[in-house]
Design brief:
The protein is an alpha/beta fold and 320 residues long. Helix content is 30%, strand content 22%. The strands form 3 sheets. Strands 1, 2, 3, 4, 5, 6, 7 and 8 form an 8-stranded mixed beta sheet that branches. The radius of gyration is 21 Å and the shape is elongated.
Length: 320
């Protein structure tokens, strides 16, 4: 089970264990929140931003020269005492270093801090980014995530295998072929004639894909273009077999870390040859965490023990 973190109000007298710095990008903030959740830590969030774009460039120089200046950035609220300052994204790394020193906390950054000195107390980066080896670096085959089912999706008929499908969309790395996707979906329905089928999409999913999904016999269908509710954590909790398109490292990461499902990745056409997502998926496939769908179903329900790996690393370094 995922430990539940405690979010504190600014007026709470209890000292947070983690101060999260946010650049207001949901994908970045969610990784920092997952870090706190996986450790079961109390936390507070402060938004940070450079005062202007030029000062971000200045921050690279100042960092190299070991000049710490809070005048380069601004943040919301006060600065509570904390054991760790945690942040994700290049807009936060300089502020992380300055604020951690100010409040005498450990500095922890998620994703490789390109352009800045890599001497934070802990860096957590993904293997597919090929970070250079360092004593203060934990490399993971996945992104940090901590999904919690909300009950948005109910269980289906007793005895029917639950088949959940998560569909993303085109990106700089992948193109979407509607005909190919339709063939893949028809293969899935054929493989599970008695299946209980669930589907959801992402903000990048083309409307033509939505139209296709509307025609198919899903018991549960949630299209992002119609509702921004997120059923993915429920899918992970319910699915016996989970199909995901290969365009998102976050979707793949959640699938191979949580739930009990056999994970099948639906291949897409790469936009410009092999990319880091392809590399990530290839490594996970070799280790048995997922199967790249080829018309048959693999037996890949091995889960990466993200929580225990992270807890062990933090304990080894005495960060809490």
């Amino acid at each position: 089970m995922i430990a539940t973190p405690v979010e504190l109000s600014d007026q709470d007298a209890t000292c947070p264990q983690i101060l999260i710095l946010s650049d207001s990008k949901p994908g970045h903030l969610n990784q920092s929140l997952a870090f706190a959740s996986l450790l079961g830590c109390r936390y507070q969030v402060r938004r940070v931003a450079f005062r202007n774009r030029l000062l971000k460039l200045v921050s690279y120089l100042f960092d190299r020269l070991r000049i710490r200046s809070s005048g380069l950035f601004k943040y919301t609220g006060d600065l509570p005492s904390a054991r760790m300052v945690v942040s994700t994204g290049s807009e936060t790394y300089y502020a992380n270093r300055v604020i951690a020193r100010t409040i005498s906390a450990f500095s922890v950054v998620l994703m490789w801090p390109a352009g800045y000195r890599a001497d934070f107390d802990l860096i957590i980066a993904q293997q597919h980014d090929n970070p250079p080896p360092r004593d203060n670096l934990l490399t993971l085959p996945v992104n940090l995530s901590a999904p919690v089912a909300t009950g948005l999706v109910q269980s289906g008929p007793a005895g029917a295998p639950c088949i959940a499908i998560i569909i993303g969309g085109p990106s700089k790395h992948f193109r979407f072929d509607l005909n190919r996707l339709e063939q893949q979906l028809q293969q899935i329905f054929h493989l599970f004639p008695d299946g209980d089928f669930l589907v959801t999409t992402s903000r990048r999913t083309p409307l033509a894909v939505d139209a296709l999904l509307e025609k198919l016999p899903f018991r549960y269908r949630l299209l992002y273009s119609q509702s921004q509710d997120n059923p993915i954590a429920d899918f992970l909790a319910l699915a016996d077999v989970l199909f995901i398109t290969e365009d998102s490292t976050s979707m793949v990461s959640e699938a191979v870390c949580w739930g009990k499902a056999n994970v099948e990745v639906l291949p897409l056409a790469a936009a410009a040859g092999r990319n880091k997502i392809c590399t990530m998926i290839g490594r996970l496939a070799k280790q048995g965490f997922l199967h790249q769908f080829d018309g048959n179903i693999g037996n890949c329900n091995l889960k990466f023990e993200l929580q225990s790996v992270l807890q062990a690393e933090v304990q080894k370094r005495s960060l809490l």
